[in-house]
């Protein structure tokens, strides 16, 4: 069961987002909260996999910021912010608060919302799996004859050229955050976050063909990715 808290004071908007969530994840339980007090009480009482919230709740202009701070004190629940506040200003603020992503109302489509939602839920699932299964001490090497082609558990990982370049950057900075801007430098076209995410997804899928429990590429909300040090 996936448990999602939807904190939005505008009821039509809340219901629309709930419909989109249900369309993408029919099995998800969605609790709707319309004010800060009820939301904070629920967050203390329930264990959620994801919190989706607005910054402004009623007359409180920055109620969402207070809720995120409260979440960060007690759990590592990912937060997706959906707000009418200008993204040019608030995206950096949400980044500093470790929110997963920021979607500005009236500028994103149902597909944008669902894609972001599914990406977060996949990361939540991977994290749970990682907690249940302790990874074996393994190492990765680059094929000296093919320069960038990686060898994983003694087998060559088949990757297209751009994915190889992205992997090489992640490996070069193991344990460090590699930003989207850093990764733009190694792609010749499609220099946007969605395209980078697709390349990273390709890398993960290729490794999982060899190792179903592979989970060493970590999403870093609003920043980029990190190859977790082994």
TrEMBL record:
<feature type="domain" description="Response regulatory">
    <location>
        <begin position="3"/>
        <end position="120"/>
    </location>
</feature>
<dbReference type="InterPro" id="IPR001867">
    <property type="entry name" value="OmpR/PhoB-type_DNA-bd"/>
</dbReference>
<dbReference type="InterPro" id="IPR039420">
    <property type="entry name" value="WalR-like"/>
</dbReference>
<keyword id="KW-0238">DNA-binding</keyword>
<dbReference type="GO" id="GO:0032993">
    <property type="term" value="C:protein-DNA complex"/>
</dbReference>
<keyword id="KW-0902">Two-component regulatory system</keyword>
<dbReference type="GO" id="GO:0005829">
    <property type="term" value="C:cytosol"/>
</dbReference>
<dbReference type="GO" id="GO:0006355">
    <property type="term" value="P:regulation of DNA-templated transcription"/>
</dbReference>
<protein>
    <submittedName>
        <fullName>Response regulator transcription factor</fullName>
    </submittedName>
</protein>
<dbReference type="InterPro" id="IPR016032">
    <property type="entry name" value="Sig_transdc_resp-reg_C-effctor"/>
</dbReference>
<feature type="modified residue" description="4-aspartylphosphate">
    <location>
        <position position="54"/>
    </location>
</feature>
<keyword id="KW-0804">Transcription</keyword>
<dbReference type="Pfam" id="PF00486">
    <property type="entry name" value="Trans_reg_C"/>
</dbReference>
<keyword id="KW-0597">Phosphoprotein</keyword>
<dbReference type="Pfam" id="PF00072">
    <property type="entry name" value="Response_reg"/>
</dbReference>
<dbReference type="InterPro" id="IPR001789">
    <property type="entry name" value="Sig_transdc_resp-reg_receiver"/>
</dbReference>
<dbReference type="GO" id="GO:0000156">
    <property type="term" value="F:phosphorelay response regulator activity"/>
</dbReference>
<dbReference type="InterPro" id="IPR011006">
    <property type="entry name" value="CheY-like_superfamily"/>
</dbReference>
<dbReference type="InterPro" id="IPR036388">
    <property type="entry name" value="WH-like_DNA-bd_sf"/>
</dbReference>
<keyword id="KW-0805">Transcription regulation</keyword>
<dbReference type="GO" id="GO:0000976">
    <property type="term" value="F:transcription cis-regulatory region binding"/>
</dbReference>
């Amino acid at each position: 069961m996936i448990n999602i808290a939807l904190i939005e004071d505008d009821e039509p908007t809340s219901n629309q987002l709930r419909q989109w969530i249900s369309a993408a994840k029919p099995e998800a339980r969605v609790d709707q909260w319309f004010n800060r007090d009820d939301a904070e009480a629920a967050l203390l009482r329930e264990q959620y996999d994801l919190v989706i919230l607005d910054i402004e709740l009623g007359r409180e202009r920055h109620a969402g910021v207070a809720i995120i701070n409260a979440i960060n004190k007690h759990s590592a629940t990912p937060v997706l912010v959906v707000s009418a506040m200008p993204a040019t200003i608030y995206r950096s603020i949400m980044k500093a608060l470790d929110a997963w992503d920021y979607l500005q109302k009236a500028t994103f489509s149902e597909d944008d919302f669902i894609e972001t939602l599914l990406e977060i839920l996949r990361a939540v699932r991977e994290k749970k799996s990682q907690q249940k299964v302790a990874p074996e001490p393994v190492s990765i090497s680059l094929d000296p004859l093919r320069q960038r082609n990686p060898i994983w558990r003694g087998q060559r990982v088949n990757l297209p050229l751009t994915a190889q370049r992205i992997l090489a950057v992640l490996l070069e900075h193991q344990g460090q955050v590699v930003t989207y801007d850093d990764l733009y430098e190694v792609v010749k076209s499609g220099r946007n976050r969605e395209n980078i995410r697709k390349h990273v997804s390709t890398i993960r899928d290729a490794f999982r063909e060899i190792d179903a429990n592979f989970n060493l590429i970590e999403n870093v909300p609003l920043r980029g990715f990190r190859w977790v040090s082994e």
